[in-house]
Design goal:
The complex is a heterotrimer of chains A (499), B (386) and C (453). By secondary structure, chain A is of the alpha/beta class. The two termini of chain A are 34 Å apart. The longest helix of chain A has 37 residues. The radius of gyration of chain A is 26 Å and the shape is globular. Chain A has 17 helices and twelve strands. Chain A folds into three domains: 51 residues, no CATH class; 266 residues, Type I PLP-dependent aspartate aminotransferase-like (Major domain) (Aspartate Aminotransferase, domain 2); 128 residues, Aspartate Aminotransferase, domain 1 (Alpha-Beta Complex), CATH 3.90.1150.10. Chain B is an alpha/beta fold and 386 residues long. Chain B has two domains: 208 residues, Probable inorganic polyphosphate/atp-NAD kinase, domain 1 (Rossmann fold, 3-Layer(aba) Sandwich), CATH 3.40.50.10330; 164 residues. In chain B, 34% of the residues lie in helices and 27% in strands. Chain B contains 14 helices and 18 strands. Chain B has a nine-stranded mixed beta sheet with strand order 12-11-10-13-15-17-18-16-14. In chain B, strands 3-2-1-4-5 form a five-stranded parallel beta sheet, with helices on both faces. In chain B, helix 4 links the parallel strand 2 and strand 3. The longest helix of chain B is centred in the first third of the chain and has 18 residues. The N and C termini of chain B lie far apart (56 Å). Chain C is of the alpha/beta class. Chain C has two domains: 114 residues, Alpha-Beta Complex (Aspartate Aminotransferase, domain 1); 256 residues, Type I PLP-dependent aspartate aminotransferase-like (Major domain) (Aspartate Aminotransferase, domain 2, 3-Layer(aba) Sandwich). Helix content of chain C is 35%, strand content 13%. In chain C, the strands form four sheets. In chain C, strands 2-8-7-6-5-3-4 form a seven-stranded mixed beta sheet, sandwiched between helices. A three-stranded antiparallel beta sheet of chain C has the order 11-14-13, covered by helices on one side. Chain C has a two-stranded parallel ribbon with strand order 1-12. The chains are: A alpha/beta (499), B alpha/beta (386), C alpha/beta (453). At the A-C interface, helix 3, helix 4, helix 5, helix 6 and helix 7 of A face helix 1, helix 2, helix 3, helix 4 and helix 5 of C. Strand 3 of chain A pairs parallel with strand 18 of chain B, so a sheet runs across the interface.
Chain lengths: 499, 386, 453
């Protein structure tokens, strides 16, 4: 194997390990040693043995093999990869936030509770909802929580015959999975030729067996459901509830409040809309906003503000006191504590830096950027639906006179220094490339990206094999995913394992 | 890097597709007539497009590919000519069957026998439904087949979309990047068809390379490899719905999707026939119209489980002629349950009914949509068309 | 605006390209009567500059007592352990934390390999074959484990025995997750720590038995022969554990667990008021296809170079049985990275050392509290060994004692067991980690001696 290829492989922590090597971080034991229950101890523990420098070099080298927002444009559709302000990171590390224990008495964590309370209130206002629980730890958990609440709601109304959840065919894959997890049945509704939910189909589906509709608006084609009010009315008329998937909320903050459209319950993705980092796959946070009728089913604990009873103090000196409560008919707890508190701090900081006008400007610019980029790519790639888009849009990765596919275009973008768009989603568009630029990208970046896609379109005709074998500039080339699934290797076997 | 050898059986039905242009519905047994009417062979040209594209794909990957492709084919117009003209070197193909005179269905069957003997990994053919039927009558389940579309009739599920697409499938399959799936092989009775009757018969089920449709769930690219698991889910969901009524007659329709439901339930379901199940027990197999009507007289509650057959999305009227309009009326349209995997539905986004009774067809097509079970606790509203 | 880069002329040029005069025109699809509402975001006056923001958040954070401002003896599922500087250094790299879930493997080898190494090390730690790339936290990992056990039980088993010594918050979470199913949880009425009574509940309707070891009260459960009994009854054994304890003590895999779950917070993740944490989930190879969550697998690229990808993705949301495998999507990638860095930094000897220090220091604290404050240690089961937490019987309400500890001694006291267990009134669960010096322990002992005198 040539030298260069050898270098491009980073050894694993086990391969780097040398027997007997260690970094001593721990002090001497300053108390008398207690007797150990010998029969409960393990024989040996196979963890790597490394120096601190080994560890640092290893993980830093790994970091250099990762694409990120901090290093380049990341137009991954439906993921809202906007800039993550660094000040928010610094704030989340403040000891009061990062070193407080979740079970401390509430009067010792008033700062935390105040932050959570304000965030709840702001999200209520932004979404137009009666109540917000911060507890769900990700969008998918928000979905599950909402569906379990809907279940409890119908049980209380003796409407247990409502077993169907309607889901548009353009929906995120988590929607049907959450539906089944919550004990409902999913009924997929097709989209019409304009990319909107097919109203005729919806009407055909709405009956007394419907518990609700899960709808993403703007939908995954990046289009605002023009018929949203008719859709909501149709579902409400048959007695169902409407769930809004808030994954695409970045287009709507300050532009419209989902609650005003009649949406009964929606999750927010703090890690999309409110600028908290995605962490390479979490932590996320998926707070849930609900209308009045579902408010008492929210998972607890939530935060509320008490009126201070001591009247002797002058009014302006009365400090609000925050406490925890669980709503009356709460479905219960969705995780160990309050959800992703560290993410709340960042989202709180994000909202404070923007204010109402700033949030609206972000949505306006997210939509401007998407439409501008879409216009720049017109004529180079087929547009799935030619109408004004919201914060994202879908192209088809097809080039006249070339056999390249969407995946080839995506991989080739990596060679140009751009992260690929979301590829092959939504499913209803063949060879879909779903592009979400976000508001934090400059015109120069958008132009450079459009130029790259244009150059790639030319390559697709001139040298299709360059695309079909791309990427070329990454540490590894296209990986064999079938082999990974067939010859499962899910852990390092670099050492002798006793099992 | 180790080399690996893949063998592809390659066969062209040189007269396939000739009939279509001159208004003949199929060319089986009518090649001379077609020629006399001025039909030109199209199969050669389409097959060559596939081979050209495949060679291009293989050359593009040459630096890293260690794949050695060995062609097995027939002499002359049944394969040899195309391979030669595409520039396949003589040592890369082997003539396993020589034809004398006009190529016939028998030549096809013999060639396939030789392909099997030589351990072909894949059989690629250029033709239509008739050719597919001839091939899988010999190949059975032993080796996957892929059709380059060139016939007049292509109802079967073994064809690629166009010659270039076929090349991509072959290329991916040879690199072990694809699995196989079951597909229905249908053909219509050409004699009756030419007489104006449209009777498609389900002949058999074959294996075909399954192009893992890139599905994306929750923004993750997933390969929906496992159709079996989806069918299991459908079977389980049906079971859940039927469990509560032990005296209900369940009629299971034709085709591989419904058969796999039977498999899952642990009964010996026929592939092509209509079978009857009560309380988990098989009480009748391969029933004809009369037998079905008799059973319907005995059971008060009944369900009929169907899946669309072939490439045109017919739920009734293709491959299940036993289910006449009399039978369907006796069953009741509200008792019909349609099942299909999402992959299959992607190919047939509109479903049709052709019972020969227009009023009944309208009733079945409901208000333009029907609910199709696509997985465990999962349905899809699908457009219907008359 | 803070993070919007366009200059006025650029914005104008972009609008011209689109043929519109104002950005607002792009929102015409939104019904007019609800378009552009006037959002009323309450105090403080917005927006804040970065400088003002930091000051405001400092003020807010300053209101909180925390484990660095006070001596913290509170545990009960979240622990104040030492976090090596390497952990924050690595997880603070933008290359990791500003990336999305690694869907494009060629551009995500760093995160993927780190997850693969996380999986490898957790397998070693738990004694299991396969580990997924994380859940939200310990409670949700357990809920998913219970759902997996119910999914695997093809014979209609619909009951799960949940030991009362499993973290009460975990038990509540499992209950919520099962609201959509017909499954029921049993075992709540069993006296905590009575393994025999739990085993007696096994029958042919039980899909799994769940224990926590060391349990919520800090003690080791009697697991000898347990797995055999569970397996003979046709059920799975699910064990909730503390990853730090595994530096020294037998992993659940060694005594027959089928699924091991834990909260990975002790592995280099700050307390952070309860989240984000890390759900650890490990199981046996035979269940890999039913396992929820993401998995990273090793493979090669076209030129044979080693690389990593998310694998078996189809099973993630594959809805096959009564309960979908799982809907989990975004999970806790950065937290798993923290745990991987933590385990690599401490290594074999380091983790053992942490576990030993926890063990010795908690035992010293218990012994001192018994001797010098005259308090009964683990009154319900005094002879059962414990790891880093133990309970003490106080003569007055725990809440009262904690208030005095906090106000007069600067100590965050332990967890009030009476708040969730009958018969444990006025018992405090005290956690002693390697972070507690002998002097700090002595201060706690002195303080408790005074308060309870």
């Amino acid at each position: 194997m040539p030298e260069i290829e050898k270098r491009s492989i980073e050894k694993t922590v086990y391969e780097l390990s040398s027997q007997g090597r260690s970094t001593n971080l721990m002090p001497e034991c300053d108390v008398p040693e207690a007797k150990l229950p010998v029969d409960l101890l393990h024989e040996d523990l196979h963890l790597p043995e490394l120096s601190e420098l080994d560890v640092v070099r290893h993980f830093i080298r790994l970091s250099q093999r990762n694409f990120c927002v901090d290093s380049g444009f990341y137009p991954l559709g439906s993921c809202t990869m906007k800039y993550n302000p660094k000040i928010n990171e610094a704030c989340a590390r403040l000891a009061g936030f990062s070193q407080s224990h979740p079970l401390q008495p509430i009067d010792t964590v008033q700062g935390n509770l105040a932050l959570m309370f304000e965030l709840q209130e702001w999200l209520k206002e932004i979404g137009g909802f009666a109540a917000v629980s911060l507890q769900p730890t990700a969008g998918a958990q928000g979905e599950l929580t909402a569906l379990l609440m809907m279940r409890a709601y119908f049980r209380d109304r003796d409407e247990t015959g409502r077993t169907q959840i309607l889901i548009p065919d353009s929906a995120h894959g988590t929607n049907p999975a959450s539906t089944t997890m919550a004990g409902f049945e999913a009924l997929e509704i097709p989209s019409d030729e304009h990319g909107n939910l097919d109203l005729a189909a919806l009407k055909a589906a709405c009956d007394a067996s419907v518990a609700g509709l899960m709808i993403t608006n703007p939908n995954t084609l990046g289009l605002f459901e023009r018929n949203i009010e008719s859709i909501v009315r149709c579902v409400h008329n048959c007695g169902g509830l409407v769930y809004g998937d808030g994954a695409n909320m970045n287009a709507l903050v300050g532009a419209v409040r989902p609650g005003d459209l009649g949406i009964d319950v929606m999750h927010y993705n703090l890690h999309k809309t409110f600028g908290t980092p995605h962490g390479g796959g979490g932590p996320g946070s998926g707070p849930l906003g609900v209308s009045e009728k579902l408010a008492s089913y929210l998972p607890g604990p939530m935060v509320c503000r008490l009126k201070n009873a001591e009247k002797s103090e002058p009014a302006e000196k009365i400090k609000p006191v925050y406490t925890l409560f669980t709503p009356e008919k709460s479905i219960g707890r969705m995780n160990s504590h309050f959800g992703s508190f560290g993410v709340f701090v960042r989202a709180y900081a994000y909202i404070l830096q923007h204010g109402a006008e700033g949030l609206k400007q972000s949505a306006l610019h997210a939509v401007l950027n998407a439409n501008y980029l879409r216009e720049r790519l017109r004529g180079i790639y087929p547009l799935s639906h030619d109408r004004t888009c919201m914060h994202e849009f879908v192209l088809q990765g097809k080039i006249e006179g070339s056999s390249v596919r969407a995946v080839d275009i995506s991989k080739r973008l990596l060679d140009y220094g751009f992260h690929p768009p979301t590829t092959y989603f939504p499913l209803i568009v063949p060879e879909a490339l779903m592009i979400e630029p976000t508001e934090t990208e400059s015109k120069q970046t958008l132009d450079a990206f459009a130029d790259a896609l244009k150059a790639i379109a030319q390559e697709a005709v001139d040298h299709p094999e360059t695309l079909q074998t791309a990427p070329h500039a990454t540490p590894v080339g296209r990986l064999d995913e079938v082999r990974a699934a067939r010859k499962l290797k899910l852990r390092d076997d670099g050492l002798q394992i006793k099992l | 890097m180790p080399m690996f050898i893949k063998r592809v059986g390659f066969l062209i039905n040189p007269i396939a597709g000739m009939g279509g242009r001159v208004g003949l519905k199929g060319t089986d047994g009518l090649a001379d007539k077609a020629r006399a009417l001025g039909a030109e062979p199209v199969a050669q040209q389409r097959a060559k497009q596939t081979v050209d594209e495949l060679l291009r794909l293989l050359s593009g990957a040459s630096s890293i590919s260690c794949l050695l492709l060995q062609w097995l084919t027939c002499s002359g117009d049944m394969g040899e000519t195309v391979l030669q003209s595409a520039g396949v070197s003589a040592n890369a193909f082997e003539i396993v069957h020589r034809i004398a005179g006009d190529p016939s269905a028998e030549d096809t069957r013999q060639a396939v026998q030789h392909f099997l003997k030589k351990q072909a990994d894949l059989i690629v053919f250029c033709g239509g439904d008739g050719t597919a039927r001839d091939i899988c009558s010999v190949a059975g389940f032993d080796v996957p087949i892929l059709g380059i579309p060139s016939g007049v009739k292509m109802f079967s599920g073994v064809f690629g979309a166009n010659p270039a697409h076929c090349a991509e499938i072959i290329y991916a399959f040879l690199q072990d990047r694809l699995t196989t799936a079951q597909a229905d092989v249908l053909d219509l009775d050409e004699a009756r068809y030419r007489a104006g009757e449209w009777k498609v018969q389900l002949y058999q089920v074959a294996l075909t390379p399954f192009e893992p449709k890139h599905m994306q769930s929750a923004k993750t690219l997933i390969e929906d490899i496992d159709e079996t698991a989806i069918k299991d889910g459908i079977a389980e969901f049906l079971l859940e719905q039927f469990r509560c009524d032990a005296s209900m007659l369940v009629l299971l329709g034709a085709g591989s999707t419904v058969k796999s439901v039977g498999d899952r339930w642990g009964i010996e379901k026929t592939l092509l026939g209509i079978d009857a199940v009560v309380n988990g027990e098989l009480i009748g197999r391969d029933l004809n119209e009369q037998q079905i009507l008799e059973l319907l007289g005995k059971f008060k509650t009944r369900k009929l489980v169907l899946s669309p057959i072939g490439a045109q999305g017919f739920v009734l009227g293709r491959g299940n002629l036993q289910l006449s309009h009399t039978v369907i009326r006796a069953i009741g349209s509200q008792n019909i349950i349609v099942i299909a995997t999402p992959t299959k539905l992607a190919r047939t986004p509109v479903l049709r009914f052709d019972t020969g009774d227009a009023a009944l067809d309208r009733e079945l097509a409901a208000n333009g949509f029907i609910r199709v079970i696509t997985g465990y606790r999962r349905r899809r509203l699908v457009k219907t068309m008359l | 605006m803070n993070y919007l880069p366009h200059t006025e002329s650029e914005r104008r040029a972009m609008l011209d390209t689109l043929g519109v005069s104002r950005m607002e025109e792009l929102f015409a699809d939104i019904p007019e009567h609800v378009r552009f509402p006037d959002l009323k975001l309450p105090l403080p006056p917005l927006p804040l500059s970065q400088m003002e923001l930091e000051a405001h958040l400092r003020e807010l954070a300053g209101q909180d007592v925390n484990a660095t401002s006070h001596e913290c003896f509170l545990g009960a599922g979240a622990y104040h352990h030492y976090i090596p500087a390497t952990v924050d250094y690595v997880t603070g790299r933008g290359e990791f934390f500003t990336a999305y879930t690694p869907y494009q493997p060629e551009a995500s080898q760093g995160m993927l390999q780190a997850m693969f190494e996380y999986q490898s090390m957790i397998c070693q730690l738990t004694g299991m074959d396969v580990t997924n790339a994380s859940h939200y936290d310990g409670a949700t990992a357990l809920a998913e484990a219970v759902r997996m056990a119910l999914n695997l039980a093809s014979d209609g088993r619909q009951k799960v025995i949940l030991s009362p010594t499993v973290n009460p918050h975990y038990r509540e979470t499992v209950q919520t997750y099962l609201l959509g199913s017909e499954a029921s949880l049993i075992g709540e009425g069993v006296v905590p720590g009575e393994m025999g009574s739990l085993v007696a509940l096994l029958d042919d309707r039980v899909a799994a038995l769940v224990i926590q070891n060391p349990n919520f009260l800090g003690q080791f459960e009697d697991v000898a022969g347990l797995a055999d009994q569970v397996h003979q009854a046709g059920a799975l054994l699910i064990v909730v554990t503390d990853p730090i304890a595994l530096g020294l003590f037998q992993p659940p895999g060694a005594y027959g667990a089928d699924v091991v779950v834990a909260d990975g917070q002790p592995l280099g993740i700050p307390l952070s008021f309860g989240g984000p944490y890390l759900g650890i989930f490990a199981t046996r190879m035979q269940y890999v296809r039913q396992m929820p969550g993401r998995l990273v697998g090793e493979t090669v690229d076209r030129s044979g170079r080693r690389g990593y990808v998310l694998t078996l993705a189809a099973r993630e949301q594959h809805i096959r049985r009564a309960r979908a495998t799982s809907n989990i999507c975004t999970n806790a990638g950065l937290m798993a990275l923290a745990a991987a860095t933590y385990l690599a930094t401490l290594g074999k000897s380091g983790l053992r050392r942490v576990a030993e220090l926890c063990y010795h220091k908690s035992h010293y604290a218990a012994q001192q509290l018994a001797e010098r404050a005259g308090l009964a240690i683990n009154p319900h089961k005094p002879d059962q060994p414990f790891f880093k937490e133990f309970s003490v019987q106080l003569p007055r309400p725990v809440e009262e004692v904690n208030r005095i500890l906090l106000e007069d001694f600067g100590i965050i006291g332990g967890f009030d067991l009476g708040s969730c267990y009958f018969g444990f009134e006025q018992q405090m669960l005290i956690a002693v980690t390697e972070m507690k010096t002998k002097a700090a322990i002595n201060r706690l002992v002195d303080a408790l001696a005074k308060v309870t005198a």
